[in-house]
Hints:
2 copies of one chain form a homodimer.
Chain A: H1 15-26, E1 30-31, H2 32-39, H3 43-55, E2 59-66, E3 69-76, H4 78-95
Antiparallel strand pairs in A: 1-3, 2-3
Chain A binds a DNA duplex through helix 3 and strand 3.
Amino acid sequence: MSGIIQHINKAFDNRVRLGIMSVLMVNEKVDFKRLKQLLGVTDGNLASHIKALEKLNYIEVYKTFVDRKPNTSYSATRFGKEAFKKHIDALEKLIHQQK
Amino acid sequence: MSGIIQHINKAFDNRVRLGIMSVLMVNEKVDFKRLKQLLGVTDGNLASHIKALEKLNYIEVYKTFVDRKPNTSYSATRFGKEAFKKHIDALEKLIHQQK
DNA sequence: TTTATTAACTTTGCGTTGCAAAGTTCTTTG
DNA sequence: CAAAGAACTTTGCAACGCAAAGTTAATAAA
């Protein structure tokens, strides 16, 4: 495939994954609950999208306990951040293309 | 559903449809062949995405003959352009969100 | 020590989407 | 009449998306 859409990353074509990465671009670490409330999705849905990003090595997981409760937080890897930046660049080029 | 991704338009989560709209935002009219070569997709695939955008009244179709050959061209409707702008706005807010 | 609660998943089920490839229709050109 | 081109439509199938229900582990409450 060639053309002006070839650098758009399919991993980010989904709103939830786009949202997760956007949040993790400006916040070093964000936990599950916070992500869930920021995005307004069900926990199962969020978990599956997180897993997809994890599988691609775009995000990392940290499991700890806070107040004696399990707490899982996430951060974007350098690789993930670069992939996201490239995606945004491609998006901007696509949107602001010239005739 | 609430949250920071709620204004992302699902119609534009797909690369091909995003590409079509992007092209039609800066070009008043573009024909099938040109779109196909710009996007680098198969004709069947392009046709199906065009149909989806048409169904939403985001684009209009003009069928004519050029050099005695059938020529179909497309343009974005005002409604489609507005929907697209809103989507881009939502994208920018999402991406450039603050902590 | 059973019971409840919370966090974070995982699984299930099912409808939707995406795409290539093949088939179709119409029209022109050789 | 055969071939070619434009623009679809259909087919088939794999991948995706999501809600809802089920699971596991730890802690808290009774």
